[in-house]
Amino acid sequence: MSTDKHLTGPSWDNSSEYPTLHSPELYADLSHAEELTASLAALGKKLSPLVAKANQLSGVEREQGVCWAQEATILGEKASILLRNVATYLSCELSVDGKNAAAKTLAGKAEALEAQLGQAYNALEQLLKLADDQFIEAYLKPEAIAPHRFHVMHERQLQDQALSLAEEDLIIGLNVNGPKAWGNLYDNLSGSIEVSLDLPTGHRQVGLAEAASLSQDSDDRVREAAFRGTERAWEAHEESAAAILNALGGWRLDLYKRRSHTKPVHFLDAPLHTSRITKASLEAMMGAVQEAVPLGQRVLSLQAKLLGKQRLAPWDLFAPCPPKGACAWRAPSYDEAISLISEAFASIHPDMGEFVQMMAKNRWIEGTVGPTKRPGAYCTQFAKSRTPRVYMTYTGGMRELKTLAHELGHAFHNWVMRDMPVATTNYPMTLAETASIFGETVVNQALINHAKAAGDLLNFTWAQAREVESLLLNIPARFAFEQAFYERRAATILQPADLKKLMKDSWAAWYGDGLSEGSPMFWASKLHFSISELSFYNFPYTFGYLFSLGVYAQRQQLGTGFYPAYVSLLRDSGSMSAEAVALKHLGADLTKADFWRQSLKIAAESVRQFEAAAAAAL
Q1: Which segments of 45-167 are extended strands (E)?
Q2: Residue 329 Cα to chain centre, angstroms
């Protein structure tokens, strides 16, 4: 591929939602959401007296309660769509410019309204959680309400954790200036921190997002400078970062303690419920992954050898494959990356390839470089138009090509659900990562299949093997850290030194001696630990990786029937548990280690391909 084109991606265009940050349309949606919330609150007051006697309603109360509950559901959904649309737009603005004061002010207003909506909706949620089956069946009978069945039944599993209506209202209200505020502080920090880099070409000050992009530079000195600069930048803010983590952890543990009035609530119960898997499935997966540690460490060992090192350094974890033998492939420009991903997706079905081209044509992908851009990548969706958006920083390189494929996999998942009732489209992270990692796998395989030289094959299998390392070592290390953090946080506040030690220990447990050193500030630099909405934003990635391999394995078996089966699986993801989806579409029992071991065999084949390519190129 040519290297004369500018590599950086374009800025996204969200004007189809709101022309500008100050557009009347945005304020109109906020105002309408506020009106709907007030109407919902009025209905909530009617429903509130029914909550305390949810299982002992008279015939008249039951009939009236069902009608109010149905009306409240429709009002709440309308308000939520408007509010989420505004919140998504503001989040997009702040992702690109973390210092945008006007967007921050509006985001604060939207968050306050979100809390009001949650409080207004709370009486309905508690009634649906606690009411008897007769009430629930009457409530779900109308066609407009029936799509809510799975969500209602899933939440009814938490009956034993319910608090009084007043307490639940208080929790929702305090969330704005509690965990949400701490999460916002982290976002503000990550969008404003400057990284001081001592590069071979001289000294530079860059944002965290740009520093992250340098972690895949071919020059070891640049990678190390980016790593050490990022570590130093976060160390300068380690007290704030530790305060954020302690506050979020402490809030959750206090809440779990309050909810343990009937039976103990463990800190893993909430993420398991949100992920729609059981503890048995998580344990089966992690047990199989623990068995596969040597597989991930084989990747580390061979990559170190190819880089001419005894052991990899942490700044080598995103290093590009060093040129070995003849190479025809070069880092693709953004346009070339879009073409490459589109062709790979089209190998599954033309609709998937056309989808990628549409995303690019509509400028629904953000790929610029900016000093105040927040680090990371994500896919989001506008609730009104049901159209997806992808956010990242694109500067070329294998890592960013894979990230783009990953996020477009998420976007395609949203796209194939756009005609479904909103209530059936809220899928868990475990299944969300299936679509994204499937997208990466498809691109990986397309690169390998079309490799033109031994050096190219090594490059592509290097990237594929890197996923094995990341998802079988790095993600489990994050999981181990977070488990240890919550166990310690239950008894005390952890200082930065404590957090550094926990991170060092978790990396050592999974990486062994495969790395020359750890990343002591990873607990601060990794956004996933400081997301206010949920904890344990880690194991679903490994779940999605292994589950997607199981899905991908069906491609040859099903032939032309694979694409409709794949779309059907994605469309079911919002109205079934992950275990039910696996049973229906794969005939698999996720609580048994055998399923996970079968997927790990596919991962092992990726490592063998890498080893064979290395032997041929050396």
Answers
A1: none
A2: 30
Whether 146 and 183 share a structural domain: no
pLDDT tens track for 378-433: 999 999 999 999 999 998 878 899 999 999 999 999 999 999 999 999 999 999 99
How far is Cα 527 from Cα 521, in angstroms, rounded to an integer?
Answer: 12
* Calpha distance 311→40 (Å, rounded): 60
Distance, first Cα to last Cα, the chain: 23
Whether the predicted pLDDT of 599 surpasses 80: yes
Q: Which two tokens stand for residue 187?
A: 């976002």
**Residues 144 and 285 placed together within one structural domain of the fold:** no
Asked which of 279-293, 414-428, 548-562, 564-578 is least confident by mean pLDDT, the reply is 548-562
Together in a domain, 171 and 182 = no
Nearest Cα to Cα of residue 295 among 608, 21, 35, 26: 608
Token representation of residue 544: 């999605």
SS (H, E, C) 538-557: CHHHHHHHHHHHHHHCHHHH
Write down the pTM of the prediction. 0.89
DSSP 9: P
Q: How wide is the angle at C-alpha 582 spanned by C-alphas 579 and 583, nearest 5°?
A: 85
Give the end of a domain, one of 132, 150, 177.
177
Q: Token digits for 617? A: 């190129």
User: Strand, helix or coil at 515?
Assistant: strand
| pLDDT at residue 3 tops 50 | no
Q: Are 140 and 264 contained in the same domain?
A: no
The model's pLDDT over 295-309, given as tens digits with 9 standing for 90+, comes to 999 999 999 999 999
36: in domain: yes
What's the pLDDT score for residue 183? Answer: 95
CATH code, domain with 258: 1.10.1370.20
Q: What's the pLDDT at 117?
A: 95
How many domains is the chain partitioned into structurally? Answer: 2
Q: Are 13 and 337 in contact (CB under 8 A)?
A: no
State the residue range of the domain holding 171. Answer: 24-177
For residue 390, the model assigns a pLDDT of: 98
The answer to whether residue 348 sits within a structural domain is no
Look at residue 417 and tell me if it is in a domain.
Answer: no
In this structure, are 484 and 550 located in the same domain? yes
